[in-house]
Amino acid sequence: MKLVQFWRPNLGYRVGLVRGENVIDITMPEAGLKSTNDFIEHAAVGDFTLQEFVEHQLSAAPRAVYAWRELDVPRDPFVPHLALPIIPPEVWGAGNTYLRDGASASDDDHTRPEIFFKATAARCVGPNTPIGVRRDSDFTAPEPELALVLGHRGDIVAYTIANDVTARDIRNVSALFQPQAKIFRGACALGPSLVTPDEIPDPYKVEVRCRVERSGETIFEEMVNTARLARRLEELVDYLVRDNPIPGGSVLCTGTGIFVPQTEALENGDIVEIEILPIGVLRNPVTRWGGSV
Asked: Number of helices (H) and strands (E), helices first, in the chain?
């Protein structure tokens, strides 16, 4: 099952069920179901999976239907468009989770994984909305990642795509600068959809593709398979929630195996595309905040 959130003029944000090339509006304000967060919370209360709960709520009543291509457009308050697929109360990241070239799993095996705080909802953007480059960074790069949407018990309720935008030059100066390198306006993109675990039966056989376009030309393109993950997803979740309760709907980014070189550092006007099937393509323009330093 694939879910999205989208903006509908005069009605606000809506929840959509993706069927083929169409999006069916399944928002039910009268039942307290106005966001994907609401669906996740109500499913947990009833001890349903997200897929089971959505199917349980659907009826034969007529519903508004939109073409995907009509929603996958730049953000405009007067036009229906895709939005963040979830409003994450917290976004966390995991680092050094992929095997390095020429390394074995034992080479990359440390007892404790690297887990760090990434963003709040205010620092996240959805599809077709600008990601940011800090005004004091000369080497900011996208980090394409499979992301986990978690329930309040730490269970994986859905998957989405994350772009863990990182100011690498700031991080490389000192580990103490990691928060500044990771947390800023537009530092995390999520979307375009949420898919339930039945859509990705083996999360260790998933291709993650990244493209960076500049002035209509592809300047960077690379793919990695999650088969190269050196950490199990359950292990990452276990360390995240250990003595650290998280709100339902929080997101855990599982790390990247794609590294854009400094020669292709993000510039104002670039377009970043990250593709993971069946989640879709997360596309974002790039904006440098505040101009040059």
From this structure: 6, 19
What is residue 29's DSSP assignment? G
Q: In this structure, how many other beta carbons lie within 10 angstroms of the beta carbon of residue 169?
A: 18
pTM: 0.94
Give me the tens of pLDDT residue by residue for the chain, a chain 293 residues long. 999 999 999 999 999 999 999 999 999 999 999 999 999 999 999 999 999 999 988 876 778 999 999 999 999 999 999 999 999 999 999 999 999 754 555 445 578 999 999 999 999 999 999 999 999 999 999 999 999 999 998 999 999 999 999 999 999 999 999 999 999 999 999 999 999 999 999 999 999 999 999 999 999 999 999 999 999 999 999 999 999 999 999 999 999 999 999 999 999 999 999 999 999 999 999 999 985 44
- Cβ partners under 8 Å of residue 292, min gap 6: 135
Residues found in the chain: 293
* Alpha-carbon span 212 to 121, nearest angstrom: 24
CB atoms under 10 Å from CB of 116, counted, come to: 14
Give the H/E segment covering residue 156: strand 156-164
DSSP-derived secondary structure letter, 28? B
Tokens, residue 137: 């960074």
Q: Are residues 123 and 185 in contact, defined by beta-carbon separation less than 8 angstroms?
A: yes
Q: CB–CB of 139/169 below 8 Å?
A: yes
Q: How far is CA 117 from the centre of its chain?
A: 14
Question: What is the rounded CA–CA span in Å between residue 272 and residue 211?
Answer: 6
Cβ distance 210 to 257 under 8 Å? no
Q: Locate 49 and state its tokens.
A: 């999976």
